[in-house]
Amino acid sequence: ASGQVYEYEVKISRADFVRDFKKLRFQIYSGTCRGRKPNRFWYVMPPGIVKDDLPSWAGLYEFDRGQLVEKVKAPLLWRGRHEIKAILQFAGAMKRRGS
Q1: pLDDT in tens, 37-64
Q2: Which of 20, 32, 33, 92 maximizes the CB count within 10 A of its CB?
Q3: CB 87 within 8 A of CB 6
Q4: Mean pLDDT value across the chain
């Protein structure tokens, strides 16, 4: 209802995390390429995967011993409000990526 979109990307290994640097999302969220952004973005992963290379546009949750702990607050990437059509497009893209 707020028009805000928050994205969470789950990573299970360091290699999985590093591969993300090659994706278009990395360019869009860092501002080197135009494209639609969520309002905030977090990585969710086990402890120790991120060293000092967490992108400035990402927050971090770590899942350890059954606890989910926010280690780095996600910065605001976009202040605007997404229209319902854009939210549905985000959802469709996430569904296709997961299959």
Answers
A1: 888 999 999 999 998 999 999 999 999 8
A2: 20
A3: no
A4: 84
98, pLDDT greater than 50: no
CA 71 vs. chain centroid, Å, equals 14
Using an 8 Å Cβ cutoff, are 63 and 44 in contact?
yes
For residue 75, which amino acid is it? P
Cα maximum dimension of the chain: 39
Residue 4 has what pLDDT? 81
CA 25 vs CA 34, 40, 44, 82: distances in Å: 10, 13, 16, 18
Q: What's the pLDDT at 99?
A: 42
How would you classify the pairing of strands 40-45 and 6-10? parallel
Cα separation, 98 vs 47, in Å, equals: 23
* Residues in contact with 61: Cβ distance below 8 Å, sequence separation at least 6, in sequence order: 8, 42, 43, 44, 45, 68, 69, 70, 71
